[in-house]
């Protein structure tokens, strides 16, 4: 099939590349000229495991190309995916300006039946809005489909190639048949393609992300209570996770959820509720708990340093909002580092992939280290903000030799308190016993 993908970010580039991988002819469009030039030279502009192999193969086989020209892409394609940003507006609502602007242009460009597929996360009713916007200028037949994306950064290629499910919201019979064919290669293991109406598909995405955020906030509250009653949240996690009805995933407490999706999607669903005079009580708590979780981590650090971090040197391991991505949008680490540096702490941070993006944040007053151990020179404490695998089994002797004080604040519970007692570190984590050796 001939496909255009508009927007080549984490979702668009993975979508385009993985659609080319099954033999489709894909042209990716982006307004970012620099990005398009890099991709034309064979450079993958984001860090996403395994994407490079597919990317190179499909370029070499002439199935994947890049342009800044929407007209060229639309002319060559029967199916047009929209993978555009939907950032939060001031009031928490999803900003649809990117989507509607492209829809407006599509209406002016289209000259025959095309299927427009919305992959961005958008509020209920957006498919109708896109349809109306196109129809202002284009009076022929076309379909607008809602096909929310559930891929996880860090596992995006795997998730696209073998999705748990594909959700397709459409009332157009022709579009339904085309999409069934398009997604067949990805659902061969029997994972379902679930067809529904456009509004339900749009709602499904928000309901899924908000439920996952809720699970995280719930465990963060359980962790806080564990600290108060002397229980160990790791044990509780294992105890409840073995129940199939609860499941083992998304039960890890920490310093809150981040990223470009959960915070904005929970906010947008809350906004939708508000607009419909619905008091979505749980959702408000999910957001409050998430904000508080970052504050509590900073409070723990302040308490340890008797209320004053001025002049303290703090090493930070992990900047990206989660491991295996260079994405630092809404990363808890960034907010925590900004707070501590505003209080006078000197910060040196290391991340395996996120440093380049962090350097672009002019409000982030920190130094960056080349490797994990270089972030430890003469520090008063280490803060662990992202659970990258390379942090899990470090050389504690070398760490101690470099650090001024053997103190770790672990926002991701990557070590066991018992082990840290043996290693003679002061060790403060989430929902578990604090270890004080001094
Ligand atoms: P992103 O910011 O990484 O990428 C968006 C891309 O769109 C950028 O390259 C930008 O230059 C381009 N763009 C902006 N305006 C354009 C225009 N007029 N024409 C062409 N290109 C344009 O965004 P993302 O993370 O890929 O997210 C896209 C959508 O998918 C959002 O709605 C998001 O909520 C949703 N989503 C994201 C994820 C994720 O893990 N990142 C997962 C599922 C769904």
Task: Outline the secondary-structure elements.
Layout: E1 2-6, H1 10-21, E2 25-29, H2 33-40, H3 51-60, E3 64-67, H4 70-75, E4 79-82, H5 97-109, E5 115-118, H6 126-135, E6 143-146, H7 156-161, E7 166-169, H8 173-183, E8 193-196, H9 198-229, H10 233-241, H11 262-275, H12 281-304, E9 313-317, H13 332-342, E10 346-350, H14 355-359, E11 367-368, E12 381-384, H15 396-402, E13 407-410, H16 417-422, E14 426-428
Parallel strand pairs: 1-2, 1-4, 2-3, 4-5, 5-6, 7-8, 9-10, 9-12, 10-11, 12-13, 13-14
Helix pairs in contact: 1-3, 5-6, 9-11, 9-12, 11-12, 12-13
Provide the descriptors you would attach to this structure in a database record.
438 residues, alpha/beta, Rossmann fold, 2 domains, six-stranded parallel beta sheet, 14 strands, 42% helix, globular, binds nicotinamide-adenine-dinucleotide
- Strand proportion: 5-15%
**Helix and strand pattern:** EHEHHEHEHEHEHEHEHHHHEHEHEEHEHE
Using the coordinates above, name the CATH class of the largest domain.
Alpha Beta
Bound small-molecule species: nicotinamide-adenine-dinucleotide
Strand order of the largest sheet: 3-2-1-4-5-6
CATH topology of the largest domain: Rossmann fold
Give the helix level as a range of percent: 40-55%
CATH architecture classification name of the largest domain: 3-Layer(aba) Sandwich
Question: CATH-wise, what's the superfamily of the largest domain?
Answer: NAD(P)-binding Rossmann-like Domain
Instruction: List the total number of helices.
Output: 16
The structural class is: alpha/beta
Largest sheet: 6 strands, parallel
Distance between the termini: 66 Å
Mean pLDDT: 97
* Poorly predicted runs: none
Shape: globular
- Counting DSSP E segments of at least 2 residues, the number of strands comes to 14
> What oligomeric assembly is this protein in?
single chain
Number of domains: 2
């Amino acid at each position: 099939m001939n496909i255009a993908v508009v927007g080549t970010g984490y979702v668009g580039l993975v979508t385009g590349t993985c659609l080319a991988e099954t033999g489709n002819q894909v042209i990716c469009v982006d307004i970012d000229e620099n990005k398009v030039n890099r991709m034309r030279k064979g450079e993958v502009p984001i860090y996403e495991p395994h994407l490079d192999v597919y990317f190179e193969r499909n370029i070499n086989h002439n199935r994947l190309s890049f342009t800044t020209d929407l007209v060229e892409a639309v002319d060559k394609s029967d199916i047009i995916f929209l993978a555009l940003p939907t950032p939060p507006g001031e009031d928490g609502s999803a900003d649809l300006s990117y989507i509607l602007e492209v829809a407006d242009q599509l209406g002016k460009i289209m000259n025959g039946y095309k299927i427009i597929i919305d992959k961005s996360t958008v509020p209920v009713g957006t498919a109708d809005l896109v349809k109306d916007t196109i129809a202002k200028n284009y009076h022929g037949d076309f379909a607008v489909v809602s096909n929310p994306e559930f891929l996880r950064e860090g596992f995006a290629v795997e998730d696209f190639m073998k999705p748990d499910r594909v959700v397709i919201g459409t009332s157009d019979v022709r579009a339904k048949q085309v999409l069934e064919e398009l997604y067949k290669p990805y659902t061969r293991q029997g994972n379902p393609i679930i067809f529904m109406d456009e509004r339900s598909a749009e709602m499904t995405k928000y309901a899924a992300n908000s439920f996952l955020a809720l699970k995280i906030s719930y465990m963060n509250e359980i962790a806080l209570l564990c600290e108060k009653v002397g229980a160990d949240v790791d044990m509780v996690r294992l105890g409840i996770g073995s129940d199939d009805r609860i499941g083992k995933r998304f039960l890890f407490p920490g310093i809150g959820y981040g990223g470009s999706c959960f915070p904005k999607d929970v906010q947008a669903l809350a906004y939708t509720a508000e607009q419909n005079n619905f008091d979505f009580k749980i959702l408000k708590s999910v957001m409050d708990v998430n904000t508080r979780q970052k504050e509590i981590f900073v409070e723990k650090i302040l308490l340890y340093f008797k209320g004053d971090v001025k002049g303290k040197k703090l090493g930070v391991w992990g900047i990206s909002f989660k491991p295996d991505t260079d994405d630092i949008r809404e990363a808890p680490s960034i907010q925590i580092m900004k707070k501590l540096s505003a209080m006078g702490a000197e910060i040196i941070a290391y991340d395996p992939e996120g440093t380049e993006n962090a350097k672009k944040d002019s409000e982030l007053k920190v130094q960056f280290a080349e490797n994990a151990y270089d972030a430890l020179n003469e520090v008063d404490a280490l803060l662990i903000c992202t659970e990258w695998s390379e942090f899990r089994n470090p050389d504690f002797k070398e760490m101690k030799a470099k650090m001024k004080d053997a103190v770790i604040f672990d926002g991701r519970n990557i070590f066991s308190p018992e082990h840290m007692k043996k290693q003679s570190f002061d060790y403060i984590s989430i929902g578990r016993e604090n270890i004080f050796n001094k």
